[in-house]
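dude i think i finally got it to work??
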Amino acid sequence: MSAPTAARSAARGPDGRGPGGVGATTPARGRGRSSAVRRAPWMLMAPFLVIFTLSFLLPIVYAVGQSFTRVERSGLFGEDGTTSGFGGLANYRQALEGTAFVESVGRVLLFGVVQVTVMIVLATVLALLLESASARWPGAFRTIYFLPYGIPGVIATILWSFLYVPGLSPVVDVAGLLGIDVDFLGPSTVLWSIANIVTWAYAGYNMLIIVAQLKSIPGDLYEAARVDGAGPLRIAWSLQLPLIRPALLLAIVFSIIGTLQLFAEPQVLQSVSTAISNEYTPNLAAYNSAFNNNDYGVAAAQSVLIALAAFVLSGLFLALTNRKDRS
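look at this
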């Protein structure tokens, strides 16, 4: 074999496929394998992304688009046809010019300030008591406190209405025998009757969030605190409360969002209380605009405003708490 032929044979390798034989195809196989690795997460996430897009993103996009759509009806009831087109901010202007909607926003803000504060304090106290060293049967009491959360809001409101309606409520009857006039469904008290239902339903839920954070505290910290002579109250104030701050922030943010979504409780109590109007809360106002007034554009605008309010309030709360931490 001549020298050039031997050189060409050595360059091809023993199997004639080039330098390294089979290994000559390794880069191409490596590129194919890395491409498959990159596609694998997207293929696994595809079902979730499809469901998330159809059930979450598309309704939001449609609602935002609907909020800028103005529908004009011909005839008294629209019997001569309807025309729709871009309405700009007309729906938002109409929603904000309605005093009832603005008053409903102020009403739920007052509700949130009082109810969320009371509920978070109650949930924190329950969690600290159940996780104290002297607590007996904590598992049973956790289950009992959490059970109201498992009852749908409509059913819970119906159950509580039996304690609010005069003639049915033993509380009202006993108070009447004592000469005390109690009206749980009056204009000045019905909001706090609703707050009582919400607190009863969600205090146990928030308690479990805090309990989960308490269980993550290392036992060595408790032992060190006891060695330093700290009692139960001192441990709760100086050790547990600072360490459960993330859970408290999470519970408060969830509660702020839930406050602006208040709907089922006032809607059910509306049948037994004349103090609750069709626009008593922002969600009720949006429901009334859509299904009683057939004004879906205004309802969409109100819904977008509610979502923006929840986003802004939650963001402001988190920003204020983070600012305090940095200072």
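The mean pLDDT is 86.
im so relieved honestly
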